[in-house]
Amino acid sequence: MGQPLDVPELAAAGGFTLRPWRLSDLPLVREASRDPYIPLITTVPSPWSERAGVAFVERQWGRATARAGYPFVVVGPGGRPVGSVGLWLRNLDQGRASLGYWVVASARGKGAAVAATGAVADWALRELRIPRLELWMEPWNTASVRTAERAGFQREGLLRGWQRIGEKRRDVFMYALLNDWA
């Protein structure tokens, strides 16, 4: 399988930082589990229990151990964890990786998602030399669309019935960022 991936600490714009998950991040998982949307598009547990929260954090560690990707916690300027961003490597053999992000409701509107997505994308392109990064989001999710565009991603199209979200297959926008450094 190879050595586990080393999830680094990264500085991001606006005083945000990115770091590996810790068990002390359980309050962040608890808040995310109460969001009506985050558990539908992630593996954040809903309903919340401490046991399910611990299992979620351990899954993040397992993703790095299995070399599936780099899961980061987004930490605000005051030191409070506010969200998550992941760089997923499932299609790396084809020259592409994907990103996903979420920010808890109490921290939205402060630039965390843009700062975190931009920092991970820059690191993935410059340091890891990944040729193509991809993002997917539902068309109605205007905040996520703005995040992707502000982080430099370009919309490439609509993928109809692309992903199961909740009980339904949903359309998603495909966004990509190409590596000018490769």
From TrEMBL:
InterPro entries: Acyl_CoA_acyltransferase, GNAT_dom, Ribosomal_N-acetyltransferase. Residues 16-179 form the N-acetyltransferase domain. It holds the Pfam family Acetyltransf_3. This is GNAT family N-acetyltransferase. It comes from Actinacidiphila acididurans.
